[in-house]
Amino acid sequence: MKNKVVITCAVTGSIHTPTMSPHLPVTPDEIAEQSIAAAEAGAAILHLHAREPKTGKPSADPDVFMAFLPRIKQATDAVLNISTGGSSQMTLAQRLAPAMRAEPEMCSLNMGSMNFGIFPMKDAYAEWTHDWEPGFLEATRDVVFKNTFADIEHILAALGEGCGTRFEFECYDTGHIQTLAWYRRQGLLKGPLFLQFVMGVLGGIDAAPEQLVHMKATADRLLGGDYHFSVLAAGGRQMGLGTMGVVMGGNVRVGLEDSLTIRRGELARSNAEQVAKIRRIVEELGHEIATPDEARSLIGLKGGDRVAF
């Protein structure tokens, strides 16, 4: 795997709303089509959320997930990674319902509770496609994304032990890396661990080169060599810090969940466009992109034949 880079694509998420981009996939058909195109462009892992088909509001309905998961699996060999983060405005049971139904190879796991502020985005728009959008954003001013130690332990047991699922450990600050290292010392986690450094969310670490160096140094100190990392930078820092992460020996995540643009002031037309751009950068740096099976080997996944969809 030397010089191989795993590209993850986060296809739709629960942060951006339909008003913000006409290219944000909302319906199961749109999510499936954009996921398949992103895989064809070079994404080895697809990080997946769902939305209510008529309104675009984030959804944790397992039936909505099942409207696109089998279709993506039939069309591509990509690793399908289901979010357990859902939205800060969902309960833990709601957030876990899709993954418990699908028993996927991989899930995301936020490594702590935190303020998760997306309310500043509300000020950029005077008109909205759907009535729910401004209230959804504003609610994050007074809502904490909850993943307590007990919540994390429940997810590790229910999905990790119960379903053989492994995790994209989402670390929004260095304290999350400390929590991850503590669970590893307790014997609840086996390597290799796959960390996602999440940068630029209001309430977490900011998207700055110095902070990326700090997060990598913290992971090295606390986890030693038994981990792999990827870099997710929100908004306009997506490509720059993602590239820096590759230079530092890591992997990279792009997608319309994390940024709606392809360059300053220009909306990305699709997830595949972002994947194609970061792939060009990775290959110009002298690396190769990892295939889905190489990503499976790197992270120690159970295989796409052992899921429930």
Automatic annotation (TrEMBL):
Keyword Transmembrane helix: no
Cofactor: Zn(2+)
Pfam families: BKACE
Keywords: Metal-binding, Transferase, Zinc
Matching InterPro entries: Aldolase_TIM, BKACE
A Gene Ontology molecular function term of the record: metal ion binding
Metal-binding keyword on record: yes
Alphabetical list of PANTHER family matching this protein: 3-KETO-5-AMINOHEXANOATE CLEAVAGE ENZYME, 3-KETO-5-AMINOHEXANOATE CLEAVAGE ENZYME-RELATED
Name the UniProt record assigns to this protein: 3-keto-5-aminohexanoate cleavage protein
Species whose genome carries this gene: Futiania mangrovi
